[in-house]
């Protein structure tokens, strides 16, 4: 910003105005002041006279008005008018010289008249004030004058300095025109940039701040290169400019923040501008701004309360917008569930929707934008984003429940009910796999735990809705299992496998690893339906042949179910159907005395099996006495701890066992044991 400066004018001192006709303004400018108003010294003989009466004062006035002094006094009105003309023409030095000569003439007449002021001088003080106001006005336009008419600014400041530095006559109050100039410099600068109250229309604040970003550095450069050379060093022009601009801007912003609440864009723009742009290299942090600006002493543009207010405003407004955006995204997705076409697919054939990407992009972008302002704002927006994502997931789950309820109750005809549930499962999977983009660097690892828990809950709910639809499909087929028809023919389970395979044919459009979870849950749902049917006591074997048939049917059904789900892509170690092979051994065992070992082995493999379940299974045999059943059940009490290879997935605990009348149940122990003991 610095420009070359010429030799300052003030080294000539105030004597230049008194001692000569020609006054140097600096910069090679010479001012000719014309005829001197100085009065010769014969008046001194009047100063020795004693105090005169009124008549003597009048006489003295007549004497003074005669001769050369009288001629000068008679020319005072013309000199006053001429001085006013000089003031109006902004010829400050000439006007000031004229006023000083007039003042000297007035002073020369005071003593002889005993302090009596001639009427001709009564307007002199007003004329001085007029010049002071004109000098003050010139100082208020210092920036403009420094560019367009620096000589005028120099003259105004020089007059102010000389008047401030001189001793006023006859005990008059000193005219501190320097302070008037300094105040005028400040007020003029503030008026230029902050003259009108700052209440921009919504959305207009960024434009106002951008204009300041351009204008304030120009003002500081003007102060350093053009205004400072026109003023004495003690004016500290660059510092004065920097501090005045800062104070004016600060007051304007306080006025703004005391008004109506800002919109999100305006709050963000002000925060970013005040914390980064204003203090950055383009403005107050510029390397070109010399140390004389002393910007390190400036108080913060925004107080902590201001920042808190703006951050809260920004977050609240953004939260309202984000909530609406997420709801619109969900509404658009829900609207597609009832259409005639199935879900859209991606190039790999998986069900696809842009909704998960839109949701995460909205949240991630708001967090990123907040990071441009401050870490505190980023953390606030991050917390808001996770909260809104949690609300969105709950709304998504509730929408799925309504969708399922209306479909199952026949309130809405949904041609592609299950495919859209599977598509929702892919949406959940996409959110789960990408939610880590919302993790802040340095944030605790558990920051996303509530969202991850909500996503897991959503996944379980969607899977449950899919499995409920599968159960509705299969329930009529298991009504005849077990039965004599089941013993003699594989058709019953073949129908189950056919319908299950048809139901699950779209599972392949679900992405891994979710598809494995879904297939495993579907296979378990089929096995649970099978176990529920076995526990109903619909069939009791009438002999060894039927027990063998039942055992063989269990082996065949287990193999058929395994083949079905292997074909669907379920990994072998996730199958539940092998439980049927364990039950087969209970039926296939020929020596009832060994049943205790089989029952204990069953419990080791499936720890959630109960005495009621075992009792119902033993009832299928049809060949056990009460004592034999009690002996087999007693082995459950002495069973070894579960095997390390035991199933960790709930099976029997999800299967209701046949419940006898409550009266037959003991306060402790199983109803099965109580029933047997009561017989």
Helical fraction equals 55-70%
Enumerate the spans where pLDDT stays under 50 for 5 or more consecutive residues. Answer: 1-60, 661-669
Radius of gyration: 50 Å
- Going by helix content, strand content and strand pairing, the class is mainly alpha
State the strand order across the main sheet: 1-2
Strand content: under 5%
> What's the story with the biggest beta sheet?
2 strands, antiparallel
Roughly what is the average pLDDT, rounded to an integer?
83
Q: SSE order, as H and E?
A: HEEHHHHHHHHHHHHHHHHHHHHHHHHHH
Number of strands: 2
Shape type: rod-shaped
Instruction: Please report the distance between the alpha carbons of the first and last residues.
Output: 108 Å
Count of helical stretches = 27
Overview features:
mainly alpha
Could you characterize the architecture of this molecule?
With 679 residues, this protein is mainly α. Helices cover 62% and strands 1% of the residues. The protein is built from 27 helices and 2 strands. It has a two-stranded antiparallel sheet. A hairpin with a 2-residue loop joins strand 1 (22-26) and strand 2 (29-32). The longest helix has 34 residues, at 375-408. It is rod-shaped and about 160 Å long. The N and C termini lie far apart (108 Å).
């Amino acid at each position: 910003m610095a420009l070359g400066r010429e030799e300052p004018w003030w080294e000539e001192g105030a004597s230049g105005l008194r001692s000569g006709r020609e006054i140097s303004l600096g910069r090679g400018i010479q001012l000719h002041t014309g005829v001197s108003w100085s009065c010769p010294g014969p008046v001194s003989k009047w100063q020795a006279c004693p105090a005169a009466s009124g008549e003597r004062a009048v006489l003295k006035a007549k004497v003074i008005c005669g001769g050369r002094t009288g001629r000068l006094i008679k020319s005072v009105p013309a000199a006053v008018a001429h001085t006013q003309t000089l003031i109006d023409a902004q010829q400050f030095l000439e006007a000031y010289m004229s006023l000083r000569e007039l003042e000297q003439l007035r002073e020369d007449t005071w003593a002889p008249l005993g302090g009596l002021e001639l009427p001709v001088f009564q307007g002199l003080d007003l004329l001085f004030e007029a010049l002071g106001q004109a000098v003050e006005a010139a100082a208020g336009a210092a920036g403009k004058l420094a560019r367009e008419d620096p000589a005028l600014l120099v003259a105004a400041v020089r007059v102010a300095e000389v008047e401030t530095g001189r001793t006023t006559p006859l005990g008059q109050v000193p005219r501190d025109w320097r302070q008037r100039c300094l105040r005028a410099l400040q007020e003029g600068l503030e008026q230029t940039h902050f003259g009108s109250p700052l209440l921009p229309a919504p959305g207009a604040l960024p434009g106002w701040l951008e204009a300041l970003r351009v204008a304030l550095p120009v003002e500081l450069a003007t102060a350093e290169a053009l205004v400072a050379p026109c003023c004495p060093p003690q004016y500290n022009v660059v510092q004065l400019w920097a501090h005045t601009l800062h104070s004016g801007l600060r007051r304007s912003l306080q006025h703004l923040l005391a008004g109506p609440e800002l919109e999100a864009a305006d709050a963000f723009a002000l925060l970013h501008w005040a914390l980064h742009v204003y203090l950055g290299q383009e403005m107050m942090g510029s390397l070109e701004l010399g140390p004389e600006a002393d910007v390190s002493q400036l108080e913060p543009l925004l107080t902590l309360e201001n920042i808190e207010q703006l951050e809260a405003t920004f977050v609240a407004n953004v939260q309202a917008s984000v909530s609406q955006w997420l709801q619109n995204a969900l509404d658009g997705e829900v609207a597609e569930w009832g259409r005639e076409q199935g879900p859209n697919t991606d190039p790999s054939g998986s069900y696809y929707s842009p909704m998960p990407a839109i949701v995460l992009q909205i949240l991630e972008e708001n967090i990123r934008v907040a990071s441009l302002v401050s870490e505190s704002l980023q953390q606030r927006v991050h917390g808001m984003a996770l909260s809104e994502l949690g609300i969105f997931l709950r709304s998504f789950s509730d929408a799925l429940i309504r969708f399922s309820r209306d479909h199952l109750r026949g309130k809405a005809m949904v041609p592609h009910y299950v495919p859209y549930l599977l598509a929702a499962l892919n949406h959940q999977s996409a959110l789960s796999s990408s939610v880590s983009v919302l993790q802040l660097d340095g944030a605790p690892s558990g920051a996303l735990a509530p969202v991850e828990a909500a996503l897991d809950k959503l996944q379980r709910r969607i899977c449950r809705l899919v499995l409920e639809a599968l159960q509705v499909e299969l329930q009529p087929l298991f009504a005849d299992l077990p039965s004599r028809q089941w013993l003699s023919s594989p058709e019953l389970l073949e129908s189950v496998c056919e319908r299950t395979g048809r139901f699950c044919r779209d599972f392949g459009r679900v992405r891994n690893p979710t598809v494995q979870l879904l297939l495993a849950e579907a296979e378990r749902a089929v096995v649970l339906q099978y176990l529920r049917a076995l526990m109903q006591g619909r069939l009791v074997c009438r002999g060894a042949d039927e027990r063998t048939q039942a055992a063989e049917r269990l082996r065949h059904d287990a193999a058929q179910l395994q083949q079905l789900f292997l074909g669907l892509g379920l990994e072998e170690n996730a199958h539940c159907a092998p439980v049927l092979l364990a039950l087969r051994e209970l039926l296939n065992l020929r020596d009832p005395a060994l049943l205790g070992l089989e029952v204990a082995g069953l419990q080791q493999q499936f720890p959630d099996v109960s005495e009621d379940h075992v009792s119902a299974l033993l009832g299928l045999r049809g060949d056990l006495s009460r004592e034999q059943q009690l002996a087999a059940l007693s082995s459950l009490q002495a069973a070894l701890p579960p095997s390390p290879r035991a199933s960790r997935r709930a099976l029997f605990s999800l299967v209701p066992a046949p419940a006898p009348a409550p009266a037959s149940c003991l306060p402790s122990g199983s109803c099965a044991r109580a029933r047997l003991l009561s017989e």
